[in-house]
Amino acid sequence: MRNVIIIGSGPAGLTAAIYAARANLEPLVIAGMEPGGQITLTDDLENYPGFPEGVKGFELYQTLEKQAQRFGAEILFDIVTKVDLTGEIKKVYTADKEFEAKVVIIATGSTPKKLDVPGEKEYIGKGVSYCATCDGFFYTGKNVAVIGGGNSALDEGLFLTRFAEKVTIIHRRDRLRADAILQERALKNAKVNFIWDTIVEQVLGDKIVTGLKLKNVKTGELSEFPLDGVFVFIGHYPNVDLFTDQVDFDKAGYIETDNRTRTNLDGVFACGDVQDNVYRQAITAAGTGCQSAMEAEKYIAEMEGHAYPGK
Ligand code: NAP
After folding, report:
1. Do the Cβ atoms of 153 and 178 come closer than 8 Å?
2. What is the pLDDT of residue 280?
């Protein structure tokens, strides 16, 4: 029987692991499909406190992992296939293992949304991408589009200007959602162009992507836009499939927690993007990871009738 199992290994999960390990709870982290989570898809994090020059997403992941291991967290590179969280003893399954724990911390993060238009699925990896850090290099000297108007679209669009000849940001409205500093940088960058009030109707290609069929939402006008690659950054949905029918969700489909990261189930906490439809920052994920671990410590202490510091 484990004290704490943490599902997910992004900033939320690994921060929970650091705190739980330092509380001698010997947590097990099950890293999931993408160890490190979304920060590993980000080139530079410029706003994570403590790094005045920014930090590479992958480097931050490795640092957090090392820090958690230093205090005794165990990290298992496996995927959770099933959970049973409703009883006092929580059960977590991978394809070939079964674990039991007093507490489960859910830190499964979120996944990039798809456009859901014809051609998109067909051309994933052949010109359609959701990760500029991973695929930007392949577009050296090429003509690419970025879909979206939020921080991700602008951040990643600006990153792509290191490689691409031309980056066109296609946004469905005439105003960006992104932070002012990113807007300013993008508007000043000679390689960046904008197409406003426009959505993608179809990804066009012939074995690889050759263009986009676009629709102006104000005029209804259809057009074809030739290009070599399209990067989609239109937001995320929470990774909650494992927990359906067990925990409560908010209206947007995120796991519902109170301000102490508690779910509706005793001994089950959720932190990071899977429960945050508002901030979705690496630092807020880390913050809620810390909360979950401290709550886990308190819950176990109460369960076992021993003292909790500060109580
Ligand atoms: P987001 O803020 O939700 O923005 C998504 C963008 O995609 C919006 O501009 C939205 O348009 C557009 N969009 C949504 N669905 C669409 C569709 N079906 N077709 C076309 N466009 C669509 O998502 P995000 O940019 O991934 O950011 C997620 C979170 O991470 C945010 O909290 C953000 O601040 C944070 N983040 C921060 C940084 C940074 O601080 N440097 C970098 C990356 C991400 P509308 O504007 O019309 O809704």
Report:
1. yes
2. 85
Confirm if 87 and 190 have CB atoms less than 8 A apart. Answer: no
Statement to judge: residues 122 and 214 lie in one domain: yes
Region 216-228: mean pLDDT is 98
Q: Which amino acid is at 295?
A: E
Which active-site residues does the annotation give?
A: 131, 134-135
User: Atom 29, ligand 1: which residue's CA is nearest?
Assistant: 280
Q: How many folded domains does the chain comprise?
A: 2
Domain that holds residue 173: 114-232
Q: Domain for residue 310, yes or no?
A: no
CA nearest ligand 1 atom 39, residue: 151
If you ran DSSP here, which 8-state letter would residue 250 be given?
A: -
CA of 231 to the centre of ligand 1 (A): 13
Read off the pLDDT of residues 101-126 as tens digits, 9 standing for 90 and up.
999 999 999 998 999 999 999 998 89
Cβ(47) to ligand 1 under 6 A?
A: yes
Least confidently predicted of 102-111, 160-169, 222-231, 298-307: 298-307
Q: According to the model, what pLDDT value does residue 131 have?
A: 87
Distance between CA atoms of 161 and 50, rounded to whole angstroms? 27
Residue 155 CB less than 6 A away from ligand 1: yes
Residue from 43, 116, 169, 177 to probe ligand 1 pocket by mutation (most atoms less than 8 Å from CB):
177
Q: Is residue 102 in contact with ligand 1, taking CB distance under 6 Å?
A: no
Clarify whether residues 149 and 226 are in a common domain.
yes
| Model pTM above 0.85 | no
Nearest one of 18, 70, 42, 71 to 282, comparing CA atoms? 42
Q: What does the alpha-carbon distance between residue 52 and residue 46 come to, in Å, rounded to a whole number? A: 8
User: By percentage, how much of the chain surpasses pLDDT 70?
Assistant: 99
Of 186, 212, 232, at which residue does a domain stop?
232
Whether residues 227 and 213 fall in one domain: yes
* Domain CATH number, residue 215: 3.50.50.60
Number of the ligand 1 atom closest to the C-alpha atom of 113? 15
Look at residue 44 in the predicted model and tell me its pLDDT. 80
